[in-house]
Amino acid sequence: MIKIVIAPDSFKGSISSHDAAEAVSEGLRDVLGDELESVVIPIADGGEGTLEALTDESERIAMEVTGPDAEPVTASYGICGDTAVIEMAKASGLTLSPRHRAAEATTYGTGELMADAIDRGIRKIMLTAGGSATNDGGCGMLAALGAVFVNGRGFEFIPTGGTLADIASFDMSCMIDGFFETTFTVAADIRNPLLGSEGATAVYGPQKGATAEELALMERGMAHWAEMLEKASGKAVASVPGSGAAGGIAAPLIAFSNAEIKRGIDTVLETAGFDAALEGADAVVTGEGRLDSQSLYGKAVSGVAKAAAAAGVPVDVICGCAGDDPERLKSMGLREIITLVSLAPDAASAISDAGKWIREAARQYALKQLLPKAREMTLTDEKLDLFRKQKDTLDIFLRNGAITEAQYGKSLGDLKRLMNIPLDM
């Protein structure tokens, strides 16, 4: 048997990671038949498509939550093993905010997804922090999980990016049951801190529609919130690399729970059980739409290659096209690169009929890289069967006294050398 771990990303705008993985599996099986043992793990880089990669429809929970503009939206999260997979963009994403008003946007809906998962007994949450419309430092999320915020006039309110400076106090004594026992992993590839010229507000606020005046207001508010978090938790959350991701949503999680910020692809592979799948694997087949120099840095293919290299498993890639020199791309630890555009009649066909060409690429890959090994393994099995039969005959001769112990030992050794069988077998 040949064991192959099939772990492609989606081919953006063409085919999902699930469908790409299925096409690879079909192509390999066309050649190897019953000699193939495949482990299918669709992946994503921790951004868009992570929920779909890690879960199927039966593992997702849809519910109405509060969108970034405080209007109801329908959002889904998934259950992958013992972990809830929550894409922040599903509940608090920029695409859900026609107004693009970062100063007023809330993460409350993301907190509602978390609360539902915790209420169901989930104690591990993977949060993908990307594509958000918000800059509220995670206050909306925290409020949905039970925190109470009070302003200087003594009124309870839910802070947004523009009202963070109004927080006079906050109380976490009424957090939902299970919050403090839950482990949070925030998937974020950016390393921006919470504050300053490289922080959440300065770098990402303009992309979310904030004006110059709003940027100054939100930065002051975020600094005030960071100071309150540090005083309450004793943790300098503002300086944690990545705390500026998604408008600072990770800041209160780092302050008050068992939370860490990790590279997106590393988080996805850990949640999917990739390392365990590598045990005994002969190769990994991964892929994405375009393989280029950006694939070397924090993207799905580089993460797969790194994990596989640590386990000593070779990695081969099927991609739509390669944007850089293939030899340079192979330097990330790749053995074989097959592009769809080298097989399809044109790029349009490679995109519109990606499943067909991925299957063909997998078939050609199997013929080149895997079939020779499968045949070698089959011959080895046949050789071992023949050796065992010859040895059984020698055993009978020995028991019947037809040969001596010395003759038996010499004949067995000669047989092993002749058939290239290890002498200690």
**Radius of gyration, whole Å:** 28 Å
The number of strands is: 14
Tell me the number of helical segments per DSSP (H or I, 4 or more residues long).
15
Output mean pLDDT: 92
Span between termini: 21 Å
Task: List unreliable stretches of 5+ residues.
Answer: none
Looking at the structure, the CATH topology of the largest domain is Glycerate kinase, domain 2
Quickly give the structural class. alpha/beta
Strand content: 15-25%
Give the fraction of residues assigned to helices: 40-55%
Order of helices and strands: EHEHEEEHHEHEEEEHHHEHHEHEHEHHH
How would a crystallographer describe the biggest sheet? 6 strands, mixed
Q: Strands of the biggest beta sheet: in what spatial order?
A: 3-4-5-6-10-11
CATH architecture of the largest domain: Alpha-Beta Complex
By CATH, the superfamily of the largest domain comes out as Glycerate kinase, domain 2
Number of structural domains: 2
Shape: elongated
Name of the CATH first level of the largest domain: Alpha Beta
Would you spell out the secondary-structure blueprint of this structure?
Elements: E1 2-8, H1 17-32, E2 36-40, H2 50-54, E3 60-66, E4 72-80, E5 83-87, H3 88-92, H4 108-119, E6 124-128, H5 139-144, E7 148-151, E8 156-157, E9 167-171, E10 183-187, H6 200-204, H7 212-233, H8 250-256, E11 258-262, H9 264-272, H10 274-277, E12 283-291, H11 300-310, E13 315-322, H12 326-330, E14 334-339, H13 347-352, H14 354-399, H15 405-419
Parallel strand pairs: 1-2, 1-12, 5-6, 6-10, 10-11, 12-13, 13-14
Antiparallel strand pairs: 3-4, 4-5, 7-8, 7-9
Helix pairs in contact: 1-14, 7-8, 14-15
